[in-house]
Amino acid sequence: MFLSTAPIINSLDTLFHLAAYDKLENKFVQLLQLLPQESTHIASALRRKNKKGNNPLHIAASVGNVKVCSLIIGISKSMINTYNNEGESPLFVAALHGRKEAFLYLHSECGPHEDYCIRKNGDTILHCAIAEEHFDKRIIKSHLVMCLAELCYKILGLYGDLVDFTNGKRITPLHLLANKPSAFKSGNDLRWFENIFYNCEYTVKF
Prior knowledge:
The chain is mostly helical. It is elongated, with a radius of gyration of 19 Å. It contains eleven helices and two strands, in the order ααααααααββααα. It folds into two domains: 1-120, Alpha Horseshoe (Serine Threonine Protein Phosphatase 5, Tetratricopeptide repeat); 122-206, no CATH class. The chain starts with 14 loop residues before the first helix and ends in a 7-residue tail after the last helix. It has a two-stranded antiparallel ribbon. It holds the Pfam family Ank_2. InterPro entries: Ankyrin_rpt, Ankyrin_rpt-contain_sf.
């Protein structure tokens, strides 16, 4: 086993994982150059997982390292179709951590396939974006209106069907948002907002 592909810390991360995490694109390229240039060696290095099941593409996506994401996918596009221990794809991980640019890049490579947007417990990328509070709050015409941040808007535009998708606990993203007191000015007055959700038809505009 080559040093660059061997786990070097307790989390089983390799030098490739660490270079992706620290956004050391030049070091990442140098590590690739140290490997025998047979495709099997390179593929093995890129697919090696840490304790959480994350490969270097997952790590790059989680920190918004678009350059390393594009480098990895340029070498092996099938890396898009890899999953960690929670059943999360690299695209899912990018959304989970609010990395809009990495999310949009990965979407452009894998296309609108919802398999990449759902993890083992049934949570979608929209569930997670709301749970992590990747949204913004604005007051319009004296009413507090929740405006999902750019990432959530992009998710809704690209994967509109996810808005009604229920997870393993039978919770939709709208239910999740309605039960986020921190999303509202009062912190507890949710009735009017729930009424909007259930009685109005929404059109997301970009």
